[in-house]
User: Fold this.
Amino acid sequence: MVDADVLARQVLEPGTPGLAEVVREFGAAVLTEDGVLDRAALARAAFSSDDRRRALEAITHPRIAAATQQAFEQAAPDAVVVHDVPLLVERDLAARYDVVVVVDAPVEVRVRRLVEQRGMAEDDVRRRIAAQADDAARRAVADVWVDTDRPVADVLADVDRLWTERLLPAERATR
Ligand SMILES: CC(C)(COP(=O)(O)OP(=O)(O)OC[C@H]1O[C@@H](n2cnc3c(N)ncnc32)[C@H](O)[C@@H]1O)[C@@H](O)C(=O)NCCC(=O)NCCS
Ligand SMILES: Nc1ncnc2c1ncn2[C@@H]1O[C@H](COP(=O)(O)OP(=O)(O)OP(=O)(O)O)[C@@H](O)[C@H]1O
Assistant:
């Protein structure tokens, strides 16, 4: 499992060159008193305009890409590597994968979950969604569509089936 959001956090940990560059670009106001990244403050700055978001991505994305490559290389030859990547469509990466799975929920459900379950500010959530690909673009690259606007148990049952009926055979077919 290679989680892009986890790698995105690692490249901005205290003491990293990534964090130093972010402070040069966005100012010391994106740090807490202890010198740790204030993620909410950086999110406010980065999602204020396309230009600011791209400035952050120019710092993070090359570093995330390098860490991703390293993680892929460490996988066992018979592993099914699951790459959890929010910006797959935006970065035009679909052709690199054997199977593209889109995990979906309607926009209003996404907003409600992130506000209620994660405590995020609603305008932050909406700005992030606005900076992402829309459903039509996601549909265009999806091999499998997982609708999560259902009870979690139903979603998990579908994912189990996806694993045994689609992903394990796809891995075998690559050998
Ligand atoms: C702005 C930051 C500090 C906000 O941190 P926060 O802890 O609030 O969010 P987290 O990193 O957990 O991301 C949660 C979700 O926000 C969305 N999101 C994050 N970055 C972006 C982006 N550049 N464009 C669109 N949506 C984004 C994604 O849906 C992601 O799954 C952080 O998201 C970040 O460093 N983003 C730039 C790196 C990046 O593009 N990450 C996406 C994975 S490659
Ligand atoms: N079927 C469901 N019912 C209720 N809540 C759900 C369901 N599926 C996901 N959630 C909740 O929705 C929120 C977002 O889910 P999750 O973090 O898995 O999204 P994600 O696909 O990783 O998004 P991104 O990759 O953009 O960060 C979480 O708080 C999660 O618990």
User: Anything to note?
Assistant: The two ends are 20 Å apart (CA to CA).
